[in-house]
Amino acid sequence: MNILIVGNGFDLSHYLPTKYDHFMLVMKAIEKKDLNKPINDVLYSPFEHPIHLITKYFKITHALDQKSYQMNFEQLFSEFKQSRDMEFIHKTKGNYDVSSIYLTAVQIYEIQNKLKKNGWYQYFKNHVEEIKTWIDFEQKIEEVLIVLAKSIVQIEKVEMNINDQFDLLDILSKKHIDTLNFFGFSNNVGGTVKIGGRVTNIQREAYISAKFCHGENIDNGFSATAFLDFLQQELEDFIQVFNLYLELIVDKLSSINSISLETDGWTYPDKIFSFNYTDTYQRLHNSVNVEYLHGSHGENQNIVLGISDLDDVSLKKLKAYGFTKYHQKLFKDTDYIFLDEFKRIIEDGKKEFDADLKLMSANALSDIRTRSIKRGLGSNATTLDLNFIIWGHSLDVSDKDYIVDLFSLNDDIDRNVRITVYYFGKTGKFSLLNNLLAILGKGKVEQWMKNKWLCFRPNPEIKFLAQESPDVDQAS
């Protein structure tokens, strides 16, 4: 059985703009879109000379044109300024029909409003240089939660001894307050103000926002649960924006050419385990049974975006599990059952073997015959015959549980499970091997590679083949 495991690199190999950077740059372009500009150009353009009448006419025509309030593909991806990004999106345009990609004024306004209000988006935007991948994105979520955990400890210490309001700057670092303030954590007073034409510096003070206090009353003290619930809802709202991006832009990219994967060693899958939210293989290649391990996009999206686990005791005490992938997978009913059918086969085989072994002992078979039968059972009864292909997954520790499960299938004997990992460039292979060693350890990785159960190969070449026009008889 051939099983394909895909990560984001699979979509990128098809020139679909699903990188974290791609998403954020498109959001930046949407934020910049001034829906009032066409009208303002008419209202505030000069009219001091007859020639201005012509200019005014064109501006009125532009203001009345519905397209002036839309964003097409070129405008949506106008913030792609790096040569690598520009080259990527150029290939997207060359291989897909982008004419149907546009956002209406209503859609633009809706997204702009969501972005403006969303604390997570504002935080990620502020740290754009530090976040380049979806793994970096997860780490940034964790950083905010760690800041919150440390702040909770300090606030609770003070609240035990003080029954009145207190200045957060006396107990928390400015950096931590600024981080939490992306989510409206505190009300700040003071700073540089202008009084009577003179600039004056008033000592800055920060107090917990009442909406994050028990009963929304600051006298009742800080409610960590209220703030955590707010962060959780903000993350869900951010996911909704990301879902709109996938639904309104990425999913509407239809190939204008036939796509070929005829590469040496490539085998078409019987099943797919996808860490992506898109249905790229089904949409661009063939219809295959796909299990979406982290959810999928769409009207009934159940996208999983979170951290691997809670390491901080304070966060565990607060039950901040809603930020973990495993909580989200369970809550959102994703296809989180990974390899269970094969693990059951192994367990059933072991039980059957143990039962037969007891029967052998009961019948007092010779040691030689027992070992012979044991070898026979081991080599035949639990053979799985599985060929896994991993394409576009980073093998990062954030998906450690899946990786450990996968590489456990040949644990006690060779069950004919083989794994091929595709990589992009030498640095890609280096990183993938590094990640595997960090998760599985030197011994297991060496065992798999020495036995040729595991191999690395360059990404298959995806060929976008121009459609041949049918021959047409020429009129004489």
Task: Give a description of the structure.
With 476 residues, the chain is α/β, with parallel strands linked by helices. Among the domains are: 17-117, no CATH class; 136-231, no CATH class. The protein has 19 helices and 14 strands. Strands 10-9-1-11-12-13 form a six-stranded parallel sheet. Strands 2-4 form a two-stranded antiparallel ribbon. A two-stranded antiparallel sheet has the order 3-7. The chain is flat, with a radius of gyration of 29 Å.
Question: Gist?
Answer:
By secondary structure, the chain is of the alpha/beta class. The protein is built from 19 helices and 14 strands. Among the domains are: 101 residues, no CATH class; 96 residues, no CATH class.
> Segments where pLDDT lies below 50 for 5+ residues?
376-380, 469-476
Strands in their spatial order, largest beta sheet: 10-9-1-11-12-13
Q: How large, in whole angstroms, is the Cα Rg? A: 29 Å
Judged by helices, strands and strand pairing, the structural class is alpha/beta
Span from first to last CA? 56 Å
Q: Overall pLDDT, averaged?
A: 85
Rough outline: flat
Number of strands: 14
Q: Please give the count of helices.
A: 19
Can you give the helix content as a percent range?
40-55%
Percent strand equals 5-15%
